[in-house]
Specification:
Blueprint (H helix, E strand, L loop, with lengths): L5 E3 L6 E6 L7 E4 L5 E6 L2 E8 L1 E4 L4 E6 L7 E7 L5 E7 L40 H6 L40 E2 L35 E10 L4 E4 L11 E4 L3 E8 L5 E5 L4 E3 L9 E2 L1 E4 L3 E8 L4 E7 L2 H5 L3 E7 L7
Parallel strand pairs: 1-9, 10-19, 11-14, 13-21
Antiparallel strand pairs: 2-7, 3-6, 3-8, 4-5, 4-7, 8-9, 11-12, 14-19, 15-18, 15-20, 16-17, 16-19, 20-21
Bound molecules: copper (II) ion (CU).
Length: about 350
């Protein structure tokens, strides 16, 4: 922030900013106080222009925005880490050397019951959980030590809901018993701000989706963690324990639901493909390669498996990926191979 990267503009011109979250472990909330931003691309794919005042960008996501500063003054580009551990800062100005005020860091957001996938739950049943730890769990999003939790409360998984072969044992924090689709809700840390905030349901592909076939099958993948061993994985296993890759037939159309059983956000990234985020924009579902799955929430995407090969599929938080939240997606047959 001290280097104060500065982008120059002539008052009145339209400026396109490509914002890439290239960090290892930090999810940011981005705004330019005094300037509206028109989002025109997500992950490098066109979306219907949508004006906003702030957006959240998870690791590996990209948003292109257009701004039109008309005044002969500097503006501060602010990116606050969602755990409020720090703030990125840059400047848009008509001349080098100018700065605008940088707002103070806002307070650390606390996870709500909804964040924990407990909307509609009997909260009395939660008496075993140490509620004071929730804010700290949110703070762990930046890689800090996991919050101390009462593990006695962590065996709340509805066994009917979990995959039959999912490993759930001591310390596996399957602690969000009822994750729900919350794509239309404001992201972490932005629930209470008094200006417009981009939500995933705002994103609408500018072009109609090329593949509108209904999915021929559905699959559910749970995002799981273990706070005692700092292990992260899919369906309760880390990559080194996984035997089977996730298999798709070439050009198969599959609906994939990611279920975040943990109290941390996970930016899930698939190589080799863009998937269609199922966000209510039927026929114009936005194309993405990374989607942030908020704590205790579900995200669904439709995938056309049109790239033969082996592809990495993983959480893009570096420590989570290294700790096991990784698998290989195989798309077969390969080019030229017999079916
Ligand atoms: Cu993760």
């Amino acid at each position: 922030p001290q280097e104060n990267w500065t982008g120059l503009f002539r008052p009145g011109e339209r400026v396109r900013l490509r914002v890439i979250n290239a960090s290892a472990m930090s999810i940011f909330n981005v705004r330019i106080p005094g300037l509206a931003m028109t989002v025109v691309q997500a992950d490098g794919e066109h979306v219907r222009p949508v004006e906003t005042d702030e957006f959240q960008i998870s690791v590996a996501e990209t948003y292109d925005v257009i701004v039109r500063p008309t005044e002969d003054r500097a503006y501060t580009i602010v990116s606050e880490a969602i755990d409020r551990s720090g703030m990125g800062r840059a400047t848009l100005a008509p001349r080098l050397g100018m700065t605008a005020e940088a707002p103070p860091l806002r307070k650390v957001p606390n996870l709500t019951m909804a964040d924990m996938g407990m909307g509609g739950m009997d909260h009395g049943a939660m008496a075993g959980m140490d509620h004071s730890a929730h804010g700290a769990a949110a703070g762990a999003a930046a890689g800090a030590a996991a919050a101390p939790m009462d593990h006695g409360a962590m065996s709340m998984r509805d066994p009917n809901n979990a995959p039959a072969d999912m490993t759930v044992g001591v310390g596996v924090d399957a602690i969000a018993p009822a994750p729900a689709n919350r794509l239309g809700e404001r992201p972490q840390g932005l629930q209470d701000v008094d200006h417009r905030v981009l939500v995933y349901t705002d994103l609408r592909s500018l072009e109609p989706n090329k593949d509108t076939r209904p999915p021929s099958r559905s699959m559910e993948i749970h995002l799981t963690g273990n706070m005692e061993r700092f292990m992260w994985g899919f369906d309760g296993r880390k990559f080194s324990e996984l035997v089977e890759p996730i298999r798709f037939e070439l050009n198969e159309r599959v609906r994939v639901t990611l279920v975040n059983d943990t109290m941390m956000a996970h930016p899930i990234h698939l190589h080799g493909h863009f998937f269609q985020l199922v966000n209510g924009q039927d026929g114009h579902q936005p194309l993405k390669h990374t989607v942030n799955v908020a704590p205790g929430s579900k995200v669904t995407f439709d995938l056309t498996a049109d790239a033969p090969g082996d592809w990495a599929f993983h959480c893009h938080l570096l420590m989570h990926m290294h700790a096991g939240m990784f698998n290989v997606v195989t798309v077969r047959p390969l080019e030229g191979a017999a079916r």
